[in-house]
Design goal:
The chain is of the alpha+beta class and about 70 residues long. Helix content is about 25%, strand content about 15%. The protein contains two helices and three strands; from the N terminus they run βββαα. It has a three-stranded antiparallel beta sheet. The longest helix has 9 residues. It is extended.
């Protein structure tokens, strides 16, 4: 299952590498496949931090090369 976020809602998902634009649904979505329990926690907002969060730092490779 893919987790879809509401438009305009600011979360830490906005800075995550797994948060990508889905052209079929015309919105951003989390590309991590969540199981039923994880999807419930995501949609209900009971989980404070995402265990799959990875910072989308596009300059990390450049800093590593310097």
């Amino acid at each position: 299952m893919k987790a879809y976020a509401e438009r305009g809602k600011m979360t830490n998902c906005d800075a995550c590498v797994n948060y990508e634009y889905d052209e079929d649904y015309e919105c951003y979505c989390c590309m991590v496949n969540l199981d039923e329990d994880e999807m419930y926690r995501f949609l209900s907002g009971t989980q404070q931090e995402c265990p799959y969060f990875r910072l989308d730092d596009e300059y990390a490779v450049v800093r590593h090369q310097m």
